[in-house]
Amino acid sequence: MSEQQLSNLIKMLEQIIANNLHQGEAAEVAEVAATHVHNFWARSMKQLIINLANTHPEQLSTVALQAVVLLQAKSVGQPASFNP
Fold first, then answer.
1. Of 33, 43, 35, 40, whose CA–CA distance to 10 is shortest?
2. For residues 59 and 61, what is the distance between their CA atoms, to the nearest angstrom?
3. 0.70 cut: is pTM over it?
4. Were 68 and a residue from 18, 30, 53, 78 both cysteine, which residue would form a disulfide, CB within 3.0 to 4.6 Å?
């Protein structure tokens, strides 16, 4: 996947987060974002953002990284743990 495509995924995730800041604390916003991505993104898109978070976490905001950790847990059906 090209850098532009990865950049677009990051922007999309950050936009989901920005649109849900009214949900409350960062943990709640991350949960809403993770649920949205889990429900509406293609499997390939989810895998790309998870891989990006695992290899280049510095490219994501703290809330986005937390959302991806939650997303990864949802994808494998395990509880998530996040340690920034």
1. 33
2. 7
3. yes
4. 53
